[in-house]
């Protein structure tokens, strides 16, 4: 049974994240309407549905449909959510990087955008899903991690942390190797998949095979409605606002690294004595390689 990756829409910080997470499930026209509305920072409690519809060149019914597909009860609920979100300190953290920005402005904007990703990922985090993922990883016989490109780097980072406490994992970043790994997994094993978009075919194919063989499956992704998220047992969602220069993936990586750090700690806490003992052993082994 899949555990949903969504968070609490009542939290103003989560509104922008929840909208972005659902964008891939919209049609191109619906996505344009949603993007148009999100770009309007002037919406207030008096903004009528008619004005919003005219601004996007669509019917009022289409705006209501988009609002419902984004998880709101209707236009008024959508409007109130946006007002609360754009009034929050979290939304104010993001600002676009311009060609005339100074070094100081660039650093500030990059850092603040990363802070926004962390705040919003925390706001949408499903703690029940997080706990279940930690249980799966703790109890697993074999733990195989799948990811391509930047996602593979995140997988390697968390694999390194787990090795420090004596939990062995393997990272696969090649389609054929993923398939071979998945074919050997079974009950009591875990396939942990990393895919920002949730649409990477090599990762999806491997997860599908692993799950058909009885393995537990976990996805770390930016989109709760993506093909990968829909097929796994547990979804852990990150979120990040797109930036034309940095890209969405770069900012999401910060949130995912922190999310996986928390997952690592949660797994270690399930047998803290063994984790501490193994950490001491691995630290001594590394220290012996350092020159004084």
Automatic annotation (TrEMBL):
Domain (SIS): residue spans on this chain: 133-273
Protein name stated in the entry: MurR/RpiR family transcriptional regulator
This protein's UniProt keywords: DNA-binding, Transcription, Transcription regulation
Keyword DNA-binding: yes
Entry superkingdom: Bacteria
PROSITE patterns cross-referenced by the UniProt entry: HTH_RPIR (PS51071), SIS (PS51464)
Domain HTH rpiR-type: 13-89
Matches recorded under Pfam families: HTH_6, SIS
4Fe-4S as UniProt keyword: no
CDD domains: SIS_RpiR
Membrane-crossing segments per the record: none
Source lineage: Bacteria, Pseudomonadati, Pseudomonadota, Alphaproteobacteria, Rhodobacterales
């Amino acid at each position: 049974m899949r555990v949903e990756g969504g968070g609490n829409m009542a939290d103003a910080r989560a509104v922008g994240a929840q909208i972005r997470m659902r964008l891939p499930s919209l049609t191109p026209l619906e996505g344009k309407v949603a993007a148009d509305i999100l770009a309007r920072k002037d919406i207030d409690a008096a903004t009528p549905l008619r004005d919003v519809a005219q601004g996007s060149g669509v019917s009022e019914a289409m705006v209501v449909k988009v609002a419902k597909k984004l998880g709101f009860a209707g236009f008024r609920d959508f409007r109130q959510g946006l007002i609360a979100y754009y009034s929050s300190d979290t939304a104010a953290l993001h600002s676009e990087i311009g060609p005339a920005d100074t070094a100081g402005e660039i650093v500030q904007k990059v850092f603040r955008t990363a802070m926004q990703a962390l705040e919003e990922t925390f706001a949408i985090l499903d703690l029940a899903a997080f706990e279940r993922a930690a249980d799966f990883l703790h109890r697993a016989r074999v733990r195989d991690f799948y990811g391509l490109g930047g996602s593979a780097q995140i997988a390697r980072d968390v694999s390194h942390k787990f090795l420090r406490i004596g939990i062995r994992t393997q990272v696969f970043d090649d389609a054929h190797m993923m398939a071979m790994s998945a074919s050997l997994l079974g009950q009591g094993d875990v396939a942990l998949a990393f895919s920002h978009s949730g649409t990477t075919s090599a990762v999806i194919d491997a997860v599908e095979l692993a799950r058909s063989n009885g393995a537990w499956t976990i996805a770390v992704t930016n989109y709760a409605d993506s093909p990968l998220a829909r097929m796994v047992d547990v979804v852990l969602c990150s979120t990040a606002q797109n930036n034309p220069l940095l890209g969405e993936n770069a900012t999401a990586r910060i949130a995912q690294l922190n999310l996986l750090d928390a997952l690592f700690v949660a797994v270690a806490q399930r047998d803290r004595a063994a984790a501490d003992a193994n950490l001491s052993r691995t630290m001594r082994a590394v220290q012996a390689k350092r020159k004084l």
